Amino acid sequence: MKRARTRGVALLIVLxxxxxxxxxxxxxxxxxxxEGLQAxxxxxxTRAHYAAEAGMVRAIExxxxxxxxxxxxxxxxxxxxxxxxxxxxxxxxDEDGKVDLNAASDQVLTGLFKAAGANxxxxxxxxxxxxxxxRPGDAASPNGAKKPQYDAAGLGYGPRNGPFATVxxxxxxxxxxxxxxxxxAPVLTIWSGRERxxxxxxxxxALASIPGLGDAGAAAILATRGQANGASVAGGxxxxxxxxxxxxxxxxxxxxxxxxxxxxxxxSGNQPYAILRWREGDVE
Length: 284
What we know:
Elements: H1 2-64, E1 75-83, E2 86-94, E3 99-100, H2 106-115, H3 120-134, H4 147-152, H5 178-184, E4 188-189, H6 204-208, H7 214-227, H8 230-234, E5 240-248, E6 254-263, E7 273-280
Parallel strand pairs: 3-4
Antiparallel strand pairs: 1-2, 2-5, 5-6, 6-7
Helix pairs in contact: 2-3
């Protein structure tokens, strides 16, 4: 009787051991599967990332090619580049076709904000606040904003009283709400030094900021640009461009890169471009 009881206990222990072993093996299998999926995802993301980087390099080569008929045009038109099993969609925008936060006139800034949906008063106050941010001194301009106005709004900072250091800094300007920022961000720059955008490369919203141009004038420019000979349009490219590359693998994996670069020309021993800004992910 005692021996049978001992055998029963031993059998129970063996059964519990087998059950525990099965649970552990199941856990290890699930962990291995999860790690395998993560590794596969990371590998796909890495491939997509480098495909997007290849698109960046292809765009730079297209901008600097000595063949005028093959030279890429920096006005936002799409280019498609195939790299291994990835399709890379690329756009190049010349920075001189944007509104320069440090150089744009009051009329251009006001026109930009009106085109982005602000009413007259809001557009004028934003234009004045932009100018006060970049202007030295403590006295606010009419409708503008210096430190006292930021304090009154409950903000813990004031204007730089100097040039904008980044495009994103404009988000901090008094009165800049998310909707307006989202609309204008793609056409803002700090690298053109121009009082008004260059019409050869400007996007529709930037064109709308130019005083006296009007909807009809902007439409005529865009239509003419679309019909112009590629070589003649590309010949007007500047030296500072924002390149956006989206790489898509066959399995749907995507990677986005946005870079602002300044071309230096193709000379022996010289880096052909300098990177001014580099962003990863689907952001503006």
